[in-house]
Design brief:
The protein is of the alpha+beta class. It has a single domain (34-156), classed as Aspartate Aminotransferase, domain 1, CATH 3.90.1150. Helix content is 35%, strand content 17%. It has 4 helices and 5 strands, in the order αααβββββα. It has helices at residues 3-12, 36-45, 50-65, 136-156; strands at residues 70-74, 78-82, 86-92, 97-101, 124-128. A 5-stranded antiparallel beta sheet has the order 1-2-3-4-5. A hairpin with a 3-residue loop joins β1 (70-74) and β2. The longest helix has 21 residues, at 136-156. It starts with a helix and ends in a 6-residue tail after the last helix. The relative contact order is 0.12.
Length: 162
């Protein structure tokens, strides 16, 4: 198998989010593949313009929000963060960075941060453009609200009978 085919196959392999905590992660897993944290590092480094800086800020906000936050790298290039379920994912596009919250439609957005995906039943997003200034305290509060929502849903689900 050529290196190019092996790289494509590695990208397509699904990754479980459990245990993907990035703090203290090593460069590669025992199987020789990069950890999700290292893949996100590479992804951000490959964006030397303003988009890389915005993604790095989003990542820092997510990782600092709660010690239980884990990260993964899915869908051929999307950093994804979990805490009692999916919290959010981020993507760099040509003229924007999109930060999507999986249960955004259920969150109280007092500071009106969501500016994309407003018509959906589940997802809400924030599109950042080059000259936008990130309101980090408000974004931290939104992330903590999303995590609290996930936890409330996890506790309220009925337990399956064996």
């Amino acid at each position: 198998m050529t290196e190019k085919k092996a790289a494509k196959k590695a990208i397509r392999q699904p990754r479980k989010h459990a245990g993907a905590k990035s703090a203290g992660a090593t460069a590669a897993s025992p199987g020789g593949q990069l950890t999700p944290a290292n893949r996100i590092d590479q992804h951000i480094a490959a964006l030397p313009d303003w988009r890389g800086a915005v993604l790095a800020t989003i990542r820092r906000i997510m990782r600092d929000a709660d010690p239980a936050v884990t990260e993964d790298y899915k869908w051929m290039g999307s950093p994804v963060w979990y805490c009692d379920g999916m919290v959010s994912l981020a993507n760099a596009h040509r003229g924007k960075v999109k930060w999507t919250f999986a249960k955004g439609a259920h969150l109280v957005d007092l500071e009106h941060l969501f500016n994309a995906g407003l018509g959906g039943n589940e997802w809400r997003a924030i599109d950042f453009t080059e000259n936008d200034r990130l309101n980090e305290p408000a974004l931290r509060r939104l992330v903590k609200t999303a995590i609290a929502y996930n936890r409330s849903q996890a506790k309220s689900k009925p337990k399956k009978k064996a």
